[in-house]
Amino acid sequence: MARNIVVTGAGSGIGAMCAQLVEDRGDTAIGLDLKNAEFEVDLSDRSAVDDVVRQVEEQYGQVDGVIANAGTQTNTPLDLKVNFFGARNTVHAFRRLLAQSENGRVAITASAASLQPTDPHLVKLLLDDQESEALEYGQSLADQGQMAGYANYSASKRAIATWVRRVAPTEEFAGAGIGINAVGPGVVATPMTTQLLSTQEGRDMAFGAMPAPYNGAQRPEDIADVLVFLVSGLNRSMTGQVIYVDGGFDAIGRGEDLWHAPKSMDQVDSR
């Protein structure tokens, strides 16, 4: 049975590729973006998100999946508004319709930047839903320059990836039959990075911060393939996962041991 999949950020880049792949599979892509999409909406505006959900329901009735891909990298509080609050609010707004689907699925575009050093206070403000305080603090970081301001981006991606893992096993999602996962791209060759990757100096900067020994910069379709799989009926059990599609950066940054030293059997309480 064909599925209706909402794709945010569908006007360009990874989002446009997701919409194309959804349609290629025989499903229906419902595009949301500031421009060049079926529904033009500012996803940083919560009331606008609620309005567009009503419009989508009126036109399509059923929503089976949401790819919350829209994002910014400005190193300002706009990143917090779109990447964290916008993505989270979009998922919450569509949750009622997703719960009515036989296979409700959500996939969020996080980032390998979620693995980079960031500002833990800002991450906590986001996860504690302290929006005005987070935006004020993020502006204070941006006022210090691009290096400090980058925490707006990395914290937004750390927080949304953490939120996915936090809510995935809850009654609100797992209990309602909604699977939710995230994808963490590394350096992606998109119009936004064309200039950066066009020079050796730019490539050295990009891959110095985020090495990608396996095939270098990812293409939009490399990320879209995984996002579209996650909201398909083929994904029957995965939830709460953050899948890094990053050319190897995760393995370099976190090393081979994700699980810490295993306890020996005599250290396990058998009661």
Automatic annotation (TrEMBL):
GO terms for molecular function: oxidoreductase activity, acting on the CH-OH group of donors, NAD or NADP as acceptor. PANTHER family: 3-OXOACYL-[ACYL-CARRIER-PROTEIN] REDUCTASE [NADH], SHORT-CHAIN DEHYDROGENASES/REDUCTASES FAMILY MEMBER. InterPro entries: NAD(P)-bd_dom_sf, SDR_fam. It comes from the Bacteria. It comes from Enteractinococcus coprophilus. Pfam families: adh_short_C2 (PF13561). Belongs to the short-chain dehydrogenases/reductases (SDR) family. This is NAD(P)-dependent dehydrogenase (Short-subunit alcohol dehydrogenase family).
